[in-house]
# Entry
Amino acid sequence: MVSDDDTPVPDAAQAAGLPHGLVQRDGGVFLDLSLAPAQLRAAVGQLFQSGQLLAGLDYALFLLTLFHAPTPRAAPKGEALLRIAARVAPFPPQRRLLYKQVKICGDSAEFYFETLPADADGQAPARREFDELVADLWGKGVRYGIDAAAVRAILGSGKAERITVARALPPQPGRDARLAEVSQGIHRNDAPRERPDGRLDLLSFKNRFPQVKKHARLLRLLPGAPGVPGYDLAGNVLAPPAPLELDLATVAGAGTAVEHFSDGDFVVATQAGYVNVDAHGKIAIENRIVSREGVSSRTTGNLKLRAAYEEYGDVQEQRQLDGSDITIHGDVYGHLHSHGGLILLQRNLVGGTAFNEHGDVRVEGVASGSVLQALSGEVHLKRAESCVIAGTRVVIDHASNCEIIADEAIIELAEGCAVAARTIRIGSAGPRKQVEMLLFPLVPDLSALEQQIAESLAKAAQHRQMQHKRQQEIDVIAQLPEVRNYLTLAGQLRHGERQLQPTQQLQYDKLAARIAPVLKEVARLRVEVKQSEILHAQMLALVEQLRHERQATAGQSRCVLGLVDGETTVRAMVAPPGPAKVYDRPPKEIKALLRSATPATQPVFADSAGSLDWTYAPP
# Structure
């Protein structure tokens, strides 16, 4: 490239003895490209310090060659020269006085281009030159970043103005290493879910928690790239910040592994399951679903899952979560339905529902204005306020204004509650403001057992009566003369008390033949007597067994109050009939059952102080 600036410099002279790296020829001044850029910069510096300059300088090529050319270079096969200027010219001291207004401020240099006065002979004022400015700035430490276009423009305009003549080049940062998703299996599909009838469920997403197969590639490592160095005004290299590196092992969690392939390094699934990413960005493939965004209309919609679910966010109002083995670390305002496992709420349940068909419900925070039911498990709460609670076993530290029904209810402190259970154990019970404290020990309906006892006693009496009747028939037959005589003679003969003559034996045989049918009837009656006796004993044993069962069933109903602190009423209530569990009822029915006077009850206790230890004893 050749510069267009061939304007003669006053007192120009042919340069001789140029520094090594600069070559003067008829066509101009050349740089020897066999040398490194640092050597060329040293040669240029020597030239400028000797009071000379490069006239007709191609500054863009000059800057590119001295600072941006690659190094080290391969040895050239022949002469490698690059024309950089038109000629070498002197830079007299009187001309340097025109460039005193240079001001260096950190990463930039400014110059005030003031209007030059005419000389003493009245000639036109002297003119500043770009090539002189380059040489002057080099001597003042500004060796890089002159804005040639701006300087030439101001020189050509002749205006008096302060401009920035040079700027440092900041380094350009490179590209950090990053991860790229390579499996469609880890992408969510937030389109509305299609119902079986073909309609769209706008409250549920199609695939919020995707699954991946074993050996699926999940993430690919894209290596980082280095940045581009910059230069300060002195020409010193400004190194770019090193790109951040990434170790795939730090993001590969359970169920994944790092594998190297010909096309790069990947995180690969070692098992089939759900994709979970923790708070530190570690990806794992597990049999349970972990979410950190909460359950809401914006994030997940309603959820119907077939795996264990763990949520670190909140469950929004009216949102429904259907699954099993549910753990929520945030607050729950919506509805949880579990088909098994454990419902564990680390914080609060407010105005929501926690329903578990085959497992426990546990709330570590406060349950308020909510419904909690465990059809085959335990409900364990630390604090409950204005809730409906039902379960096989209910354990609460502090319950206030709640309706509770269970097989067994254990409460440390109960205030203004209505509690119904077969076994009730309360540490302290009393009213709350205007809400009374009601306790209903559920006593069993023993009518079926009592009916069986009555029927068994009746059957025992029948068998006893039959036994007496048959025995009377036997006694009547035994009083007949021939039968009495035969039985007496037979007894004597059997015991050897009498011997019969032949004629007597013949008469005895005839007698035995005549009463044989009567003896057969007696034998039959004796069998019936024995059978009636056995059946009578069996019925009495059954009655005793039923009475023990009745007593044991009744003994399951118990109410223990450690301290009565305020008006408290205890009334025994017959457990509602039917095959369903007593606590397997809708919340409205539970409230109606416990807060109304509809069911028949039996007074047990009513006082504002004292204690109680009561066990049901049937009449």
